[in-house]
Amino acid sequence: MTAYDDSLNPFRKLTVMTLSNAVVRRVIVSHASEWMYYHGCMSLELNLLHRISAIKSLRQAIGSITAVQPADGDSSGRLDHEVPLHPMETVLTAVLLQVANSLFDGWSWSDTRLSCAFQVLCNLDLITHTPAHFISRFLVQRFAMLDLANALLRQSRLHLPLSCWLFKLGTSADEVEPRHQQMTGCPRGLVGLLAQICSLADTLADGRCKADVLMDASQLQEELHKYFSDASTRRTVQVADRHLNSLGECWYWCAYLCLQRCVLFLPTQSPEVQSSVACLIELLKSVPLRCLPGSKIFVPLCMAAREAINPEDRSMLSKRNADMRIVYPSRIRDETMALIEERWVGT
């Protein structure tokens, strides 16, 4: 589900383009079956039948592309809306849908699927140069957010390098069909900063000089301040965008929390961390559950819960997750919140 929906939503276009593609169609049917089974509208046997069919088709597709490569020089702009997907793009689409489904079905196999999708991205040469075709841009965008969610919540390494076009600021790619924030809830300008923070935490874990890391962290902190200041001047007052703006600010405080906890190693109880948590929680409260931005608060919700120490805040976050379970069921969110709530016991 997108954070914002209109006629330019790539999910709509992707659906139309994949109706004639068996592997992607079977994956979509399998995911729909998961939701129907979860809500008691489909039997377990039929749900498993659709899942087996999707996995079998995906395995066959992966095996069939080993000898297929994109034509030279056409990896970015070769497709029109009416032209079928390239075999590699078909596989990438299906794998990314499977990775996204892991957010519903639990963490198991998410790393394997991310690694598989990343390899396809590399083979299609979609990482270093901005693709001209909307489907390719959409797929990279989709992968990046799944990769970031995995890194932020599991402290895993990013698959995408910092040289990825999506992480570079100052490009115009976010001005076309539609904006990154409308699709994911996270503003385009923050995606690159989040990636840099995650990467910086990795270099510290690898034994990089702490003084150098702190210098880079200070620069990132300044960039976050500048981003927030610039974003505040651009914020719209239109009702339709109010909740989307609040969701975007949630991601800002997620970036700040990640910097404070994973790079600067400030303790959870520190005033700085708790100030960020308080801001994030207030923003989460302002995003209604049954609006499109409300479907995209999974990562901010879990990051706030991980650092919350106030009993009232913890209770509110647990209730929000319980409410989301009815509207946006997600085993991976439930698993993450369950682990966090276990840590709350005795603290």
Automatic annotation (TrEMBL):
Organism: Aspergillus arachidicola
Coiled coil: none
One GO CC annotation: nucleus
Annotated PANTHER family: TRANSCRIPTIONAL ACTIVATOR PROTEIN UGA3, ZN(II)2CYS6 TRANSCRIPTION FACTOR (EUROFUNG)
Signal peptide start-end: none
Stored InterPro entries: Fun_TF
Cellular compartments annotated: Nucleus
Protein name: Fungal-specific transcription factor domain-containing protein
